[in-house]
Amino acid sequence: MRNPNGYGSVVKLSGNRRRPFRVRKTIGFNEKGHPIYQTLDYTKTREEGMIILAQYNKDPWDVEKKNMTLGELFELWLERKAVKLGRSNQASLKSAYQHCKGLVSFKYKDIKAYHMQDTIDHCGCGYSTQGTIKALWGHLDKFALELDVNARSYSSLIQSAPIPETKKTPFSDAEIQTMWSMQGMPWVDSVLFLLYTGFRISEMLGLRTDSVNLEAGTITGGTKTKAGKDRVVPIHSKIRHIVAARLEEGGNHLFSHNGEQCSISTYRKFWADIMEVAKLEHTPHDCRHTFRSRLDSAGANKRCIDLMMGHKSQDVGERVYTHKTLKELKAAIELVTD
């Protein structure tokens, strides 16, 4: 049966094609009176084409957006959405995109759950990278839905490797003394810094020198959560000389490497070397666990602990660092005497 005028048509193209049927609409006529067609899609069967044509006539969509490739969508997402994320998060998601490059020329609406899953299953990386790839697909799916590029979110169907159970093992007093005895070894000062501040390694490596107020005895830093961002941690008297020495080196970052911000991957190599020499088996995060555990054992106020750790607590209302608050934090951190 002939379609009504202006409805559009589905025509079969010549040759051996995976999707030989072209779904098209007439959008005008040239100077000779011949129709000018706009392609809506290509399908495997005429029936699929007629369904698409019916959908378009019922609710017309932006054809250019519907034909947007993964590469085009990602670039637009970088411009409009990624800028609202933290720098560390942006860097992780950009890195995750490298594992999706095999689909860069695919129309985004044609990318299904199994395509997304393949980028995770064949990335050759651990749970952390897999989780970031999954998160990237979630961001892109949400953006694509917002633009009407696709009609459903396949990222909700994909899976990444679960985060392995980790056993948090704090440093013992003897192990901390081992670290003090190794101060002459490069980067051991960073281990001691983590043990007496509770910062994460990403937070430590991101600390800028202008975030340190040696005179006031405080460091302002931290990321990840609302409670953790830009928190104030007093400089424990035992590591004041470490912080001062690092400041004297100059540069923009407190713990720099060759004059530049040290990357987490490079720092982990330094960490592994230190643990090998010390004959210890600890992760950098164990320092954070140790910091909290020692404060708790020393009887520090829970509110002060949560403020320094950057944890959300019912005992912590608005995070306003008054003179009294800073005095309390300094008193709490000095309870750790070893």
Describe the protein's architecture and organization.
The protein is mainly alpha-helical. The protein folds into 3 domains: 9-60, no CATH class; 70-157, DNA polymerase, domain 1; 173-333, hpI Integrase, Chain A, CATH 1.10.443. The chain contains 14 helices and 8 strands. It has helices spanning 46-58, 63-66, 70-80, 87-97, 113-121, 127-147, 173-181, 188-195, 201-206, 240-248, 264-278, 284-297, 302-309, 323-333; strands spanning 9-12, 21-29, 35-43, 212-213, 218-221, 231-234, 256-257, 260-261. It has a 3-stranded antiparallel β-sheet, covered by helices on one side. A 3-stranded antiparallel β-sheet has the order 4-5-6. Strand 7 (256-257) and strand 8 (260-261) form a beta hairpin. Helix 5 runs antiparallel to helix 6 (127-147) and helix 8 packs parallel to helix 12 (284-297). The longest helix has 21 residues, at 127-147. The model has no long low-confidence stretch (mean pLDDT 87).
